[in-house]
Amino acid sequence: MLRAPEPEHGQTASQRYNAQRRRDSETARLYSTRRWQALRADQLTREPLCRMCMAEDRVTAAVVCDHVEPHRGDVTKFWAGPFQSLCKRHHDSDKQRDERG
Ligand SMILES: [Zn+2]
């Protein structure tokens, strides 16, 4: 039996947080679909270099197909894009900035 050791606060903020987490996990599953693998491969073929590195006058192979606008768990937005190719460093720093903002 699975029993999550979560306190029952029932606060609006934590409910909002949980709802967002549910939506995030829903789109997180999409990353393992063949549809996403194909879309990602297509993006990295069309744009093989990290866009942010190029802006810094650097040439780095991109490994991540990133959503230009955060989809925030929105499945429609997840598939619609637009996308950009990023290296791992820029992808991770971009995500951190997004979470802070
Ligand atoms: Zn980069």
TrEMBL record:
Residues 1-28 are annotated as: Disordered. This is HNH endonuclease.
